[in-house]
Amino acid sequence: MSSPVLLNSAQSAAVEHERGPLLVLAGAGSGKTRVLTERVGRLLERRVAPDHVLAFTFTNRAAREMRERIERRVGQEAARRLWVGTFHGTGVRLLRRESRPHGVAGRGPDFVIYDREDQEGLLREVLKGMGLNEEAARPGEILGKISDAKSALVTPEEAMPVAMTPFQRRVSEAYAFYEAELRKRSAFDFDDLIAQVVWLFRARPEVAEYYARRFEHVLVDEYQDTNHAQFRIVEALGQGHDNVFVVGDDDQSIYRWRGADISNILEFERAFPGAAVIRLEQNYRSTGNILAAANAVIENNRERKGKRLWCEREAGASLRFVLAADESEEAQRVVQFIHERALAPGATGKLSQCAVLYRTHAQSRALETELRHRQIPYELVGGISFYQRREVKDLLAYLRLAVNPTDAAAFWRALNTPKRGLGDAVRARIEGRLQAGAPNPIEAMRAALQEGALSRGASAATALLALLDELHARAAEPADVLLRLVLERTGYLDWIAAEDERAAMERVGNIEELLEAAAAFAALAPEPGLANYLAEASLLTDADRVEEGADRVLLLTAHNAKGLEFDHVIVAGLEEGLFPHASSLEVPSELEEERRLFYVALTRARQQVLLTAAAFRHRYSAGGYGGAGGQVSRFVDEIPAELLEREEPIRSSRASENGDEYPESWAPRRERRGPRDWERGTVKDSWASAGPTTRSAAVGREVYHESFGRGIVMAAEGQGDTLRYTVRFGVRIKKVLARFLTEGSHVD
DNA sequence: TGCGTTGACCCTGGA
DNA sequence: GGTCAACGCA
């Protein structure tokens, strides 16, 4: 963090703030993390007991970093007693504590946490039970509604009477069944980890009072992205003392789609009367040019409090923009940029200080391919988190059952994973026993087995029961020991090896990593225990696992980049329909959220920004271009021309006919400063030989087709008779065998 | 009855 | 290219 050695006056005012509510409006790079940490340190110096301070961060990673910084300042013992965590993590902690004697919302302390996949499975069962086949096809949409309801603290009972349309009625009914089933399984979903805390506080005001008294100081980071339920938690905990210290930036609010409520920040002063407001507008992170560009872009938003970041740093390099022909060329240009910054002779940067940001995970593929091709180490953040991987979830399902035998999602998963001949028929029998009143699926299976109802599956079921019983009996042992027991008794490793040889290596690697993580947790966690381990596994995201210091390029979504900073930032895929995303184009408020996301992306950069777009982009598979082509994102045009160095092709209606490897119409304007290192061949040979493009020589050529007419070749695949071109005929994109095309185009 | 194969649909973002 | 439900084989 490139913070000043000393705090500036606004920062110091925030840190030294005596008591009462305080809203810190902190622009990007204005040192808000530092202020928050300093503030906590200052409170401890003022003799506030560490376990009377509660700080909410946005990610587990931010929580860890804050704790480490505070540890350096006040020592390990005090730092460990602080309550620092995400809303979800802290929610688990509170719910676990409070469920100890009597349970919370019908769940005991061994509740499990349902992730998206578990939720979907459960909802599918619910919808099937309701006889709703059509809805069952898209449980995601209904889960979204349920999630919205919980974020807004709407219970099923409250949702039912206000449901107007038939669809809404079905959704609220599904919500009620879903809720009942979760409770039966002693499970909470992600939204419950927040909402149930509020409902707990309402049902038992003495509990809320206890925590409000205990936490003399409540601090919240990234306040602009809190939802209504989170606001209620903060409000409840602030009762009586009002020492609520929140830090946020309305321009960086990028999670409204999942319920973040910007009125929390806009109306903070009304919610906490007498609140002081401090603005941090000096940016210490980015160069003048980057900041000016970001400011210019965000000023196009109407819905904002309005502030203008400034800095004392030099203007720095211009931002750069490259329009590539397609995503593979885009990837080449991105990697080339990284190469120049971090690898070429004389380059002063590090790979770890380069990050590629994009709008959707799907964009990572082309970048990965290119990075691998150039043998540049990278790390992909996001997509599937480690703990969501199939092999990891398969194994954890057994541990979940050891802790909580009512966890039906885990049971159905474990039942026939690895395959042991217990399929749909066995499942149906067990479901029958469950409906007849068996307390949980394990006991239902035991009953079915004893009644001889499992004929062919009997021996497999017996073995599975024995394993589950043993796991339950040994649930107090370290997670890695139990995982080894599962591996050994189920033959899981042999099964994945047989399943898919190609993926087996990676899966085994993941299992090894899981064993290591489980052992580390058992040994090091302040509150060990299987239930806590499983909670951590549910709440850790991929972004939390990013290690500091490793020398590699980071690939991540703009959402995931929140709170991070790098010397060199590349924002890829800047096309209308992608960034801003197509779904936002019709809705002004959503377009503004896209713009804020772009603003977040830009302000991650300290030194240099490269923006890229592709004129055409594959969608789905390698087959066919389904994507909207070619129109550069409006956000690029919102950057003042004098700040942006464009390497854009000179657009022409006709493609090049000159036989050059590179179609003139898409050719990047050559750098004026003479050849780059890689062009002189002084660096890796691969750079010199591959040139700016590896695409087929036919790409860019004009061709003619009997029925489709004139078109331009976008890509080629196959050879000889199977050589096929992807051709754009006007607005339509088709894949055509080369031999159906004419007009001097078949170069290869 | 379980399991492998086929074809539909698909990809915003994430705790 | 990947996932998942429906389908038909052993």
Describe this structure in a few short sentences:
This protein is an alpha/beta fold and 748 residues long. It contains 31 helices and 20 strands.
Question: Can you walk through the features of this model?
Answer:
45% of the residues lie in helices and 13% in strands. The chain contains 31 helices and 20 strands. Strands 11-12-10-13-14-9-15 form a 7-stranded parallel beta sheet. It has a 6-stranded parallel beta sheet with strand order 3-2-6-7-1-8, with helices on both faces. Helix 1 (9-16) packs across helix 2 (32-45), helix 2 packs across helix 3 (60-74) and helix 11 (192-203) packs across helix 12. The structure holds a DNA duplex (15 and 10 nucleotides).
Task: Label this structure with key terms.
single chain; 748 residues; alpha/beta; 7-stranded parallel β-sheet; 6-stranded parallel β-sheet; 31 helices; 45% helix; 13% strand; globular; disordered C terminus; DNA-binding
Distance between the termini: 52 Å
Q: How would a textbook summarize the main sheet?
A: 7 strands, parallel
Number of strands: 20
Number of helices: 31
**Shape assignment:** globular
Radius of gyration: 28 Å
